[in-house]
Amino acid sequence: MLSKIGILGGTFDPIHLGHLRAAVEIREGFGLDAVYLIPAAVPPHKPRQDIAAPEDRLEMLRQATEDLPELRVSDIELKRQGPSYTIDTICAFREKLPPKVWVYLIMGIDAFLEINTWKSYEDLLHIVPSIVINRPAAEGRIQPSLENAIETLMRSGALAGYECSLSTPCYTHCDKQPIFTFNVTPMEISSTRIRELVKKGQRIDYLVPPRVQAYIQAKGLYK
Fold first, then answer.
1. 222/199 Cα distance (integer angstroms)
2. Are 191 and 11 spatial neighbours (Cβ–Cβ below 8 Å)?
3. What are the φ/ψ torsions at residue 18 (nearest 5 degrees)?
């Protein structure tokens, strides 16, 4: 029976080994029963025109997690019309789960830095604890540390009232849910780079699971 789960949303275009490794480490680090990977149907913060079809991204997730029962795939955002807002997904997920199941929202630091632009982000901080993880920096850019990024948001007012916990890697608030920080194994892999390699006709071995690579080739994605 589930008691604690994590929700990790994203474009997953395509899912790669960095995503999977992070999900596995978070599940183990927080003692979660499962981590749900949720592809966005219409990513509100990534208005790319060449994004793979939601059905293809969903199937690649299923192929990638076939041998990882602790990682589960949900199509909840694909069934909903319009942009895939996190607040709507969390509320819909909580409605389907027993009341005693604890839900954690997992996100990379790059996404968390924009949380004040998200739909109803204050409500989101009230209803679900967050796990913020480090992510590889984009080429030519330096990724801020988790602590520096969160403290920057605190100073800006986006996370007003949060304080650094002295006992755990966590930021707490008297009324809102805690924000945990967690360092996963850094893997210099990005979906953008994978798409570029495929477009150039180069191999993507050891960047994505073999089943995902086979699916990309069979469907002719990212050409």
1. 6
2. yes
3. -65, -45
The tokens for 72 are 């589960």
Contact status, residue 146 vs residue 109, Cβ threshold 8 Å: yes
25-62 pLDDT tens trace: 999 999 999 999 999 988 776 666 789 999 999 999 99
Fold classified for 4-188? Rossmann fold (3.40.50)
3-class DSSP assignment, residue 105 = strand
Domain boundary assignment for the chain: 4-188
Please provide the size of the chain in residues: 223
Both tokens of 79, joined, read 């069934």
Dist. CA 24–CA 26, nearest whole Å: 6
pLDDT in tens, 126-182: 999 999 998 765 444 445 688 888 988 999 999 999 999 988 889 999 999 999 999
The pair of three-digit structure tokens given for residue 161, joined into one six-digit string? 């009232």
User: Residue 147 has what pLDDT?
Assistant: 85
**Distances from the Cα of 81 to the Cα of 78, 120, 158, 161, angstroms:** 8, 18, 28, 34
Output the pLDDT for position 137.
52
With beta carbons less than 8 A apart as the criterion, state whether 40 and 75 touch: no
β pairing state of 4-10 and 34-39:
parallel
